[in-house]
Predict the structure of TIGR00266 family protein.
Amino acid sequence: MDYEILYPGAFPLLKVQLRQGDFLKAESDAMVSMSTSIDVEGRMEGGFLGGIGRMLAGEKFFFQTLTARRGSGEVTLAPSIPGDIIDVDLDGSYGLVVQKDGFLAGTTGIEVSSKMQNLMQGMFSGEGFFTLKVSGKGTVFLNSYGAIHAINLEAGEERIVDNNHLVAWPDYMDYKIEKATSGWISSFTSGEMLVCRFKGPGVVLIQTRNPKGFGEWAKSLIPAK
């Protein structure tokens, strides 16, 4: 299986070459085009309960599974929002926790499940009580709103990240929720309420734009009835 990320930046396209027998799992509306040798099916990863868990994590109930059954072929995929696509290779030693709408596709060997957060994280992280966990051996393709920036934390190093800018982080990293400033009034007036504090070692992937903030801005332009 070979792949290439075309037109990197705001409107990228993922092109994947599948050999006969290869398959790719992707978000249910991610396919842009495919060769006639490829079949596409809707499947629930992990069965019905797995589908429910994905819905609770803010993702679609079904995956697309694209399989090259009648010879080799080409598939192109794209996310529904403008922003980067990046590839992350997993060797099976750890998984990724992925924010909602951050998963685009995964190669053979990649498994996707839901991960339940604790009460404090679920209530205040902005991600809900469930996030996606991506594990296994293979390549996972993530997408973002805006560009993706990697924050590489050394052992013991800490970094504070706005909840709405998170894309993914290793499942072995701990994080906690806290106020952005010392007091609730300052947090409210600064526009930064709750943030996530990560502690290294590990790499935290963030997106340069805030989809929630953009939605609020766009809503402000709609004339009131």
User: Anything to note?
Assistant: DSSP finds four helices and 18 strands in the chain. The chain has one domain: 2-220.
